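Supplementary notes for students who missed Thursday's class. We covered one full example, reproduced here. Read the sequence, then the structure, then the short commentary at the end.
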Amino acid sequence: MRIVFSICFIFCACTNNSPTVKPGIIKMVQTSKSFTGNYKTQQENCRNILKLNNGLKEKIITSIICDSLIPCWYGTPWNFYGTSETPGKGNIACGYFVTTIIRDVGIQINRIKMAQCASEEMVKTVCEPASIKRFSNKSMTEFITHIKKSGFGLYIVGLDNHTGFVYNDGNEVFFIHSSYASPKCVVKEVAMQSSVLYYSKYRVVGKLKF
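Structure (token representation):
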């Protein structure tokens, strides 16, 4: 079952970027699927798979994260000081959303320290070094093209004052984050249509390593 919402925002300033969609238009996509178990069960699945030396490990874990774990967080309210560890309860800041997911799948990380540090430090800590790329005052088209060329996978992006996941499912690129912009909750957006991603002048992105 797929629910699509279009939310329009009015901004007072423009940038020099040239997106392929009207700036300020967000298409928020939330997908509800039949899960094979609850959040804790999927956590355990990821942690068990993470221990394997299997060429399909990255694809399997990425699919579990994006299809089963992250959807449990959709709609959880954003708050600058939010530190929730339970999907749908309390509220959660952008950095804590990212580090909680990373920790829950079994990647060794200091959840609190990484959530509070500069997002670029987080990217350098948990992403494949060779995959890290910085975009300063570059167009959204250039950024999205890079993600598409980099292929299927889950990426972490650090923005001017924000962070979140970028997911390339092989067909579309999505931005998944605890959004400070309306509707102020955890959302999954078509990346090219995300105002938060669009209006950031700096973007550093890397592919999550498993």
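Commentary. Residues 2-207 form one domain. Strands lie at 2-8, 25-31, 133-136, 153-158, 163-168, 173-178, 186-190, 202-207. If anything here is unclear, bring it to office hours.
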